[in-house]
Write a structure and sequence with these properties.
By secondary structure, the protein is α+β, with helices and mostly antiparallel strands. The protein is 20% helix and 41% strand. The strands form two sheets. It has a twelve-stranded antiparallel β-barrel. A two-stranded antiparallel sheet has the order 1-2. This is Copper resistance protein B.
Length: 368
């Protein structure tokens, strides 16, 4: 079948299109009114030069017209702001949400999204959406639940609490090319974190007698997080006359984990001395630990009665590998290198003692 396009047919088609165009605004207005009935689906009202009507009729019911300014509508039971009215869709959406138990702040935010509101109106809507004061059982903002941040409950440790420790760093037998015997090194303390009574002793026994050694009693005072100052006395043991010294020093943990001890001594008749020590722990495992240690002694003047010369008198380097059965009990094996220097070496040669020696050591490290 074919349609012949003649002038009457064209006129009829143009007239139909024109009528269809005229019918579009009424259809769009009807669709817009239907969307206003859905909660949260309000569309912004077109700007108009003439004042908005006070009310509109929808479904035979008079409804207040939407305010041109777009200010959020009040909730159910609230009075509308002066000079403004709620849109039909906003009012119906709020009524439906109230019947379903929705939070007023949520609906206020939804109505604000539907209205073309200014900055101040949107701020008011956001303030309402955040809600009022928190409930009584709400968690505190920092999750502390009222606990002070500086202390754990039940875990307070007073700085004045006193403790005690006695530790044998070395309790060993040694065997070298020239000398054999036993050696000890210990320290113990009693006090608190700031002040302690510190006792230190070291020495060696050979041929059934104490060949050399010393005993120190010191007051230790904390001056920094990892450093203490020491002040006290030292008493020498072993061959020759006993010497007494006033001791002043510092000890602590240096960077990279080195334990450092430096002490100066002043004795009678203008005698002076110093001792420098450092050790480090290399953990192969939590129980197997290698500990190198270096010690150097020096004196300000000769003391032939004790076989000591001025300057650096001796240097000792030890290397011990221990296994901690428990933290308090650890057997070890290692090597100890001893070297006498300067005039002290001359005194040793004069009485037939070795100047240097390399020794195998076996011992026990323990503390109480």
């Amino acid at each position: 079948m074919s349609i012949r396009l003649n002038r009457p047919t064209i006129r009829a088609a143009a007239l139909a299109i024109f009528l269809a165009v005229l019918a579009l605004p009424a259809t769009a207005q009807h669709q817009h009114a239907g969307m206003d009935g859905m909660p949260g689906m309000d569309m912004p009202a077109p700007a108009a030069s003439a004042p908005a009507p006070a009310s509109s009729t929808m479904g035979g019911t008079a409804m207040p017209a939407r305010a041109a300014s777009g200010v959020p509508a009040p909730m159910r039971g609230e009075a509308a702001p002066a000079g403004h009215a709620m849109s039909p869709g906003t009012q119906r959406g709020i009524h439906d949400a109230s019947s379903q138990g929705m939070h007023p702040g949520t609906m206020t935010g939804m109505s604000a999204q539907g209205d073309a509101a200014g900055p101040s109106a949107r701020a008011m809507a956001m303030g309402r959406m955040q809600g009022g004061p928190p409930p009584a059982d709400a968690r505190s903002p920092d999750y502390s639940d009222g606990v002070a941040p500086s202390h754990l409950p039940g875990m307070d440790m007073g700085e004045e609490a006193r403790f005690a420790l006695l530790q044998f760093d070395r309790l060993e037998s040694f065997a070298g090319r020239e000398e054999h015997g036993q050696r000890w090194e210990l320290h113990g303390w009693y006090g608190n974190d700031n002040d302690k009574l510190l006792v230190r002793s070291e020495g060696e026994r050979s041929a059934g007698r104490v060949a050399e050694g010393d005993l120190e009693a010191l007051w230790s005072h904390a001056v920094a997080a990892y450093w203490d100052t020491t002040l006290g006395v030292r008493h020498d043991l072993g061959d020759g006359p006993c010497r007494n010294w006033l001791a002043v020093g510092v000890q602590g943990l240096a960077p990279y984990g080195f334990d450092v001890e430096a002490t100066g001594y002043v004795g009678l008749s203008g005698r002076t001395a110093a001792r420098l020590r450092a050790d480090y722990e290399v953990l192969f495992t939590q129980r197997l630990i290698l500990q190198p240690e270096l010690e150097a002694n020096l004196y300000g003047r000769d003391d032939p009665a004790r076989g000591i010369g001025r300057g650096f008198s001796d240097v000792q380097f030890g290397l011990r590998l221990r296994y901690e059965i428990r933290r308090e009990l650890a057997p070890y094996v290692g090597m100890q290198f001893v070297r006498r220097l300067g005039r002290t070496a001359d005194f040793a040669r004069a009485i037939g003692q070795p100047v240097s020696d390399r020794q195998l050591v076996v011992g026990l490290r323990l503390w109480f």
